[in-house]
C-alpha cells in the first residue's frame, strides 16, 4: 500500500504518519518528489486496520493499495516514468541511449580502439565484460580487475560511461569502484542475494531478463533491488529461450510496451544476444526503437572472427555507424531523438 501525503503536509505530519505505520508493525520507505511525498508501506496484511489508523491523520491525502506482486516497480506505486541520470546522460526520457562495445574486454589496445569508434558513431555508453560467466568452464572468463582498469582508461579517453557485469556478491565493491552501471546478466536474474547487494549500493543497475523468465518474474527481480533502497534500475530485454533454432534466442518485442504499461522503469533492448547473429541485429534494433524502447545495447568488435566471446553476433564498426544513422530516422518517426 502507498500513502500519498498532500502538498501542504509538513515534515512533522510525514514523520507522524511514518511512525504510526511502524507502530502497527509494518516497514516503510519514504519517497520525496518535487511536490509530494509518498510513504510505501511494506507487508500490509490488515488493510482496513491500517486505513482506519492513518487516513484521517493530518497531511494524508489518500491511501492506495497496490495489487501487483511487484510493488515498487509498479505504475500503481510510481505513475510517472523513472528517468535515470548517469554522467549527464538520461535513460527513460525522449532521448534514446545506445550502449556499445565488445562482449568482453580482451586487451587494452583493442578495447580503446573500439571505444573511440563507437563514440564517433554516436554511442553514449561503453559495454564490455571483465567477468564473463560462460556456459563452458573452458571458455574465456574475462580479465577480472585488469579488464575493469582498461575500461576506466577508455572512459577517461572518451568520456563514455561504463556498463559492465557483476557476477558475484563479493565482486560488487570492486565493480562499484570502476563502473558507472552495474549489469546483472540473464543468468543472475534470479540470484536474489546479488540483487539485494547491488540494491544497497548507490549505483544504477541494468537488469537483464532471464532466458526463461516471465515478465512478472523479471519485474519481481527488479523489486529486490528497489526494495533495498536503490531506485535507479532499468531493464534489458535480451531475448528468451523458445523452440526456434534460427536465432540464439527469440526477441520478445512485445515486452517493451508491456513493461511500459506495467512499470515506470526504463527498458532497453539487446538485439545482439537476442539474435546471436550479426545479420539480424540491425533489423531488431530498429524494431525495438519503433516499439518504444528507451535504448539499445549492441555488441561491436573490430574483427568479430577473432573475438574471444560472441563474435558471431558482433557488428563491425562500419556497420554500427550505418545502424546509428538509420536509428536516427526511426527515432524521429516515433517522436524520439538519438
Question: What's this model, at a glance?
Answer:
The protein has eleven helices and 14 strands. It is α/β, with parallel strands linked by helices.
What is the topology?
Blueprint: E1 2-5, H1 11-23, E2 27-32, E3 37-42, H2 47-54, E4 60-64, E5 84-86, E6 89-91, E7 97-101, H3 108-121, E8 125-127, H4 145-158, E9 161-165, H5 172-178, E10 181-184, H6 192-199, E11 205-208, H7 215-227, E12 233-237, H8 255-262, E13 267-269, H9 271-275, H10 278-291, E14 295-299, H11 317-333
Parallel strand pairs: 7-8, 7-14, 8-9, 9-10, 10-11, 11-12, 12-13
Antiparallel strand pairs: 1-3, 1-4, 2-3, 5-6
Helix pairs in contact: 3-4, 3-11, 6-7, 10-11
DSSP strand count = 14
Task: Tally the structural domains.
Answer: 2
Distance between the ends:
37 Å
Q: Tell me which oligomeric state these chains represent.
A: single chain
The CATH superfamily of the largest domain turns out to be: Aldolase class I
| CATH domain topology of the largest domain | TIM Barrel
Order of helices and strands: EHEEHEEEEHEHEHEHEHEHEHHEH
Main sheet: which strands, in order across?
13-12-11-10-9-8-7-14
Low-confidence stretches: none
Helix/sheet category: alpha/beta
Shape: elongated
What is the CATH level 1 assignment of the largest domain?
Alpha Beta
Number of helices: 11
Amino acid at each position: 500500500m502507498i500513502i500519498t501525503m498532500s502538498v501542504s503536509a509538513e515534515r512533522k505530519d510525514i514523520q507522524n504518519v511514518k511512525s504510526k505505520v511502524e507502530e502497527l508493525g509494518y516497514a516503510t520507505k519514504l519517497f520525496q518528489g518535487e511536490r509530494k511525498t509518498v510513504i510505501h508501506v511494506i507487508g500490509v496484511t490488515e488493510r482496513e486496520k491500517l486505513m482506519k489508523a492513518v487516513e484521517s491523520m493530518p497531511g494524508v491525502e489518500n491511501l492506495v493499495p497496490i495489487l501487483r506482486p511487484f510493488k515498487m516497480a509498479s505504475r500503481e506505486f510510481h505513475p510517472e516514468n523513472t528517468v535515470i541520470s548517469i554522467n549527464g546522460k538520461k535513460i527513460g526520457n525522449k532521448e534514446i541511449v545506445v550502449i556499445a562495445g565488445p562482449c568482453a574486454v580482451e586487451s587494452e589496445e583493442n578495447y580503446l580502439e573500439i571505444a573511440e569508434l563507437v563514440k564517433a558513431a554516436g554511442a553514449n555508453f561503453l559495454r564490455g565484460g571483465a567477468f564473463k560467466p560462460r556456459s563452458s568452464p573452458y571458455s574465456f572468463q574475462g580479465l577480472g580487475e585488469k579488464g575493469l582498469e582498461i575500461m576506466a582508461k577508455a572512459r577517461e579517453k572518451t568520456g563514455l560511461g561504463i556498463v559492465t557485469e557483476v557476477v558475484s556478491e563479493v565482486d560488487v565493491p570492486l565493480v562499484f569502484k570502476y563502473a558507472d552501471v552495474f549489469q546483472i546478466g540473464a543468468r543472475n536474474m534470479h540470484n536474489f542475494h546479488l540483487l539485494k547487494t547491488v540494491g544497497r549500493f548507490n549505483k544504477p543497475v541494468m537488469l537483464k531478463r532471464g532466458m526463461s523468465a516471465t515478465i512478472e518474474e523479471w519485474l519481481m527481480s527488479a523489486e529486490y533491488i528497489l526494495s533495498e533502497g536503490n531506485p535507479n534500475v532499468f531493464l534489458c530485454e535480451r531475448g528468451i529461450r523458445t523452440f526456434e533454432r534460427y536465432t540464439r534466442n527469440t526477441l520478445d518485442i512485445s515486452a517493451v510496451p508491456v513493461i511500459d504499461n506495467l512499470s515506470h522503469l526504463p527498458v532497453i533492448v539487446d538485439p545482439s544476444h537476442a539474435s546471436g547473429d550479426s545479420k539480424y541485429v540491425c533489423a531488431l534494433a530498429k524494431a525495438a526503437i519503433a516499439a518504444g524502447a528507451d535504448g539499445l545495447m549492441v555488441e561491436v568488435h573490430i574483427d568479430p572472427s577473432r573475438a574471444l566471446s560472441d563474435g558471431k553476433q558482433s557488428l563491425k564498426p562500419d556497420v554500427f555507424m550505418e545502424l546509428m544513422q538509420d536509428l536516427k530516422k526511426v527515432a524521429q518517426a516515433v517522436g524520439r531523438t538519438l
